[in-house]
Amino acid sequence: MSNRNMIIGQSGGPTAVINASLAGAIECAFSLKEIGTVYGMVNGIQGLLEDNVIDLNERFENNLSRLNRLSMTPAMYLGSCRYKLSDDESEYEKIFYALRKYDIGYFFYIGGNDSMDTVDKLSRYAIENNIDIKIVGIPKTIDNDLMGIDHSPGFGSAAKYIALAVRNVAYDTSIYSIKSVHIIEAMGRNAGWIAASSVLARDSKNVAPHLIYLPEVPFSVDRFISDVKEKLSEYNSVIVVVSEGLKDENGEYISARNSVDKFGHVMLSGTGNYLKNIVEAHIGCKVRALEPGILQRSAGHTISFTDMTEAQNLGRVAVHAAVDGKTGVFATLRRISDNPYSVEYDTEKVSVVANAEKTIPLEWITANKNDVTQEMVEYLKPLVRGAVQVPYRDGLPDYVGIAYLDMKKQKYTD
Amino acid sequence: MSNRNMIIGQSGGPTAVINASLAGAIECAFSLKEIGTVYGMVNGIQGLLEDNVIDLNERFENNLSRLNRLSMTPAMYLGSCRYKLSDDESEYEKIFYALRKYDIGYFFYIGGNDSMDTVDKLSRYAIENNIDIKIVGIPKTIDNDLMGIDHSPGFGSAAKYIALAVRNVAYDTSIYSIKSVHIIEAMGRNAGWIAASSVLARDSKNVAPHLIYLPEVPFSVDRFISDVKEKLSEYNSVIVVVSEGLKDENGEYISARNSVDKFGHVMLSGTGNYLKNIVEAHIGCKVRALEPGILQRSAGHTISFTDMTEAQNLGRVAVHAAVDGKTGVFATLRRISDNPYSVEYDTEKVSVVANAEKTIPLEWITANKNDVTQEMVEYLKPLVRGAVQVPYRDGLPDYVGIAYLDMKKQKYTD
To answer: What whole-number distance in Å separates Cα of residue A8 and Cα of residue B290?
Structure first.
């Protein structure tokens, strides 16, 4: 087999460990004689179409400590895009023209369901047109809603973030002997995995979160009010975690409701703020809503070791699969056991994951719909384990600079 | 000198390192023959009045690893109160009756300006009434607005939190090649120290935050719009940090303004959300507001080593001062040099700090009022330095359980 080049890109929304998959893939490629130069698409497929391509050997081959730091740099070194492939034949021709220009034999795309759809389409086009380029996906998403994989890289670190935040808030709000409610809104439109992960904040010293509401089951405002009242009768400080995507019995998003404050002003707000107004109006104690937003997916300084390691490994598995001749697949992992935690790596057809969505099994939600079961805890526990020794400089994480800055500076001294 | 007991309490709002001051004071007291039993007031002065007092020797004397973990537990182990001493003589009598009951010779109160006012009043009452109890303050506040001290314990960790958040958000928002604005609202009503600390997010690889607005200078919406437009002409992703307490030329809080969204709905919101609506209306690019809120003061897992160590030392200094016969003072630190960073510890009369407020010197704010100077950076840099090796269990920080739980369980096994 002759030596061919590889190209890799990132797409969709960021996670704290997508760069770990990138670093794993690059490091593996450097070690394989079948692969020549390693190129990166800056801003995904869109960058490829605009010839926004950089040489990753130049940037990392003689600087393995920098490659190591790349694994601990959040978001996307190569930038992202939200580019939906059209059915226009000429678009495919442009993409494969660009790939031929760089003598690409191996193409990797790190992303979620949409990106896996791109992998599916490109690999089918290559096969149909007898183009010898292996096209392989590497999964990522904080939402954990990908099919065909036990859990998504990026999710473990988001889960850890929300558990950390809830535990810290539980301490913070415990200090006064007055009644209060804190509502923390977690990311997740249709799948409640991140909100559910807040359960890990509990330990022998902390019972918060007291209530967890997920989008997998219909949300009732009346039941919410009575749940909160019941918890307030037992605890001074009640912490409630809600998914941003809570829906009512009619399938309407709670966040789409306008609420009216005590002055009669209409408030447009998210799920957490809507429920804050409900508590104010119906219970009347001190109440705050917290929405960590994109902090949940970008906390590079508190990534889970399990998550980072698995993200790296999936990058390596993808590169090996392509060199072994596989195409139209993505790197995946299957859980062998919870305790001791163990996974096996493999590949799976991308058609399994493209355009599908995995939600929480209903049997992992308690009967009263305001908490999760012990099975859910066992599933989540290993995913947040292990602290990563992120390198620090002047008291802050010393991340790798992102690629578009690299391009401006043309020097990679850090 | 006969052996007398000591009592310690915490008051006001939480920080991530108040328990480090508590741990420092307890550890020092255990080592001094002048001090007998170490008691804690649960929920400050209010707890003392309600005889809500716990024995800290029982809980920590034979468990020094637990005392060590107490330094790395956020918020307040002993709980807090917001109790303003009245001028009523009988209230003082009740307090000193309670102190006599426990044979207290040394009284310590960890708190901000209000708490130092309490220390001032109690110490003057004791002197006037010939009561031999030494009353000493230990300072804390995330706001860094205390007079008589170079910087307040708790501030360094809040500064670190905001710098971490801004650096992570800078990476997260850099991924798309479209124009966007992110507005991060930092705590601080009258003093902009926390917002200013976001400057530390900058390094050789990241220029964010692009704009910083502080409450020390009047805020102009027109200038804000032109500043943001100018930055957008140079950068795709612009990150703006604002203090919650921004005021206009008339001294009115920006957060008090109602804004009207694109549908004509009146929005009641904080400073960040108001400015988000301004950007939407006047610039029209993608814009998000982020308000980390109490996460800024409760992030026990990312405390600054400098901050934690100084908080511990101030606890020790206070105990030594009381045993040396001082009263009506608080433990303080003075900076000797920035580089190498060095401080000296001392005590200062509490009257210096009570009911006063330290804001940012105007010469540390740039002439165009949207950034801070290099002097500010030099002042801030040492305060966030050093990562603390917080003990983890199952991937999450293993904090000490708070005192009111201790009281219920009456066992301290962790």
So the answer is: 32
